[in-house]
Amino acid sequence: MKKRFLQNLEVSEIGMGCMGFSHGYGEVPEETYAVNAIRKAYDFGCTFFDTAESYGNEMFYPGHNEQLLGKAVEPFRKEVIIATKLHINLEECMGISLYDVLCKHIEQSLKNLRTDYIDLYYLHRVNENIPVEDVAESMGRLIKSGVIRAWGLSQVSVDTLAKAHAVTSVSAVQNLYSMLERDCDKDIFPYCLENNIGVVPFSPIASGFLSGKVTVETRFEGDDVRKWVPQLSKDNIAANQPILDLLRSYASQKSATPAQISLAWMLHKYPNVVPIPGSKNQERIVENLGACNVELTNEEFSKLETALDSFEVHGHRGHIETEQTSFGNNWKLVD
């Protein structure tokens, strides 16, 4: 797999979101299956793995996903880039410096991940009561100490990104971006290209819709967050079918899958984009990573862009969220 850079971090051009092994997509697989899935991704060429301190559910406590990832990559830790995320509550900042709060969080994540450093440390969502500039300053201190190599932000506007970047250089922005959610085209991508910042889209296959596997008959069970994804209501699944039909036509021409075409489109469009599709299914994980072998010509890409511009997208969510306004408040803070 080809490599790309998130500022100074070299990663595989497609990464892997690990959340589904702990929560968010209904019943989770057994630990052995999850560990093997992560290792199969590495064997395929994936060197970029994404998790968060909060990934867990009523069965698997927060930190469970970090622990799974840490166990899986321990044999080849130095060969991969680990990204994890933290939330900061105002209450935990009372009587203690923000830097010390971050140190407490990262100490637990380091233990969970079986490592002595974290490559990329995200603020999972901005807390409106804590200035992002203060977070940026503390992240800068962590970078200088060597405990993290780089830091990033998730679900932010370009204004928030610029405020943070002015204090401590931001290496990556993890925002919602896909063929159905293209708001980042307007300002996030231009700003990031200009400032050498990577963009790491989560849900790049639109929560599975762009794979063609989700239909109006699909039922989401248990803790599956797709119950609350606007584009996956029955009405919006039906209304967005023209986009899926377009993908299928390209997939047929390129001997690929619709999901692979959606990822290949993204990779062709921006040199600084590194999508992190998430799945709990080993076959689907390998399929997604296989998008690295699908290349669109300039003409194919141009026609695809023109067609996408002509469609109305139903069920828009948007990429600007805080801890107070997060989509995840419908259930819990998730990606």
UniProtKB/TrEMBL annotation:
The keyword Oxidoreductase applies. The keyword GTP-binding does not apply. Coiled coil: none annotated. SUPFAM superfamilies: NAD(P)-linked oxidoreductase. Pfam families: Aldo_ket_red. Keywords: Oxidoreductase. Residues 13-307 form the NADP-dependent oxidoreductase domain. This is Aldo/keto reductase. It comes from Brotonthovivens ammoniilytica.
